[in-house]
């Protein structure tokens, strides 16, 4: 996956600007830059660790062929946690999530390790990521699941059908990734200006028919945001956070400016007419587009 180059000092300043704005949790993973993201977060929060909750993941490893594989064997989970703690320069993570399911290891076996890490004080809470309902059901028979991280945005709403009701019924929080549809729903996004190697050029959102639908939706929604003195991304985040099952929306930022703009939708409670405008616009899109 290629998002383009990122300067470490810019990233550190972005994290600190976000904390200054009141953001109090950071989601990261060893998979992001194979440890580089965790190292950057560790440097950014040094001296202000108590101001922020750190969420990281485990289980996704390099396969030696420029790809990745899933490994949630107990020994692997323990080794990954120790490596993450070193990179993050901390003695605990507030939430440890299994990055993706590992079909070769029973979840009962891997999930039990999380409980041991919690007992050891190295992990405060255990969560899952991209796990279906049946694996959640098996995990909670052992001990509670704090959260499940899943794709959710106006273009990706499949979890509303089964996952969200299940999580609400079982007191499991949902962290939404892809909140801005990989950036396609950002105000200034321009597919043609992306770097040649950017994965979004090959994304299904970037296919001509789908991209035209997204541009049409943005044209319909932008006046609604502007009427409130807001941006399109503010509307997207406000719409997502309306759902009672969604605990938090993950937004990627690159610099201080984006960090300060990230919170623009938090004070917006959409009214019935505004929700109708959004839903009418989204009728141009189908989740299986």
SSE topology:
Layout: H1 8-20, E1 25-27, H2 36-45, E2 53-58, E3 60-62, E4 68-70, H3 74-88, E5 93-98, H4 107-119, E6 123-129, H5 133-140, E7 147-151, H6 163-169, E8 173-177, H7 208-227, H8 232-241, E9 246-249, H9 256-261, H10 272-282
Parallel strand pairs: 1-2, 2-5, 5-6, 6-7, 7-8, 8-9
Antiparallel strand pairs: 3-4
Characterize the structure shown.
The chain is an alpha/beta fold. The protein is built from ten helices and nine strands. The strands form two sheets. It has a seven-stranded parallel beta sheet. Helix 7 (208-227) packs antiparallel against helix 10 (272-282). The longest helix is centred in the last third of the chain and has 20 residues, at 208-227. The radius of gyration is 19 Å and the shape is globular.
């Amino acid at each position: 996956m290629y998002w383009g180059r990122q300067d470490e000092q810019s990233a550190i300043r972005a994290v600190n600007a976000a904390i200054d704005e009141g953001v109090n949790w950071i989601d990261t993973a060893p998979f992001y830059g194979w440890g580089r993201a965790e190292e950057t977060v560790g440097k950014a929060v040094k001296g202000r660790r108590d101001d922020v909750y750190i969420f990281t993941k485990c289980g996704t490893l390099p396969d030696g062929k420029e790809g990745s594989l899933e490994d949630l064997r107990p020994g692997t989970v323990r080794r990954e946690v120790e490596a993450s703690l070193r990179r993050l320069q901390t003695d605990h993570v507030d939430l440890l999530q299994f990055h993706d399911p590992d079909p070769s290891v029973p979840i009962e076996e891997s999930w039990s390790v999380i409980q041991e890490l919690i007992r050891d004080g190295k992990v405060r809470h255990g969560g899952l990521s991209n796990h279906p309902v049946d694996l959640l059901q098996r995990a909670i028979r052992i001990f509670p699941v704090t959260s499940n991280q899943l794709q959710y945005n106006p273009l990706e709403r499949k979890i509303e059908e089964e996952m969200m009701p299940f999580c609400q019924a079982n007191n499991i929080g949902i962290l939404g990734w892809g909140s801005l549809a990989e950036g396609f729903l950002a105000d200034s996004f321009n597919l043609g200006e992306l770097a040649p190697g950017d994965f979004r050029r090959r994304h299904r959102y970037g296919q001509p028919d789908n991209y035209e639908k997204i541009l049409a939706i943005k044209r319909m929604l932008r006046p609604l945001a502007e009427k409130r003195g807001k941006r399109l991304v503010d509307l997207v985040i406000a719409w997502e956070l309306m759902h009672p099952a969604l605990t938090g929306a993950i937004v990627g930022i690159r610099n201080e400016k984006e960090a300060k703009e990230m919170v623009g939708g938090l004070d917006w409670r959409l009214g019935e007419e505004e929700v109708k405008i959004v839903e009418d616009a989204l009728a141009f899109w189908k989740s299986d587009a």
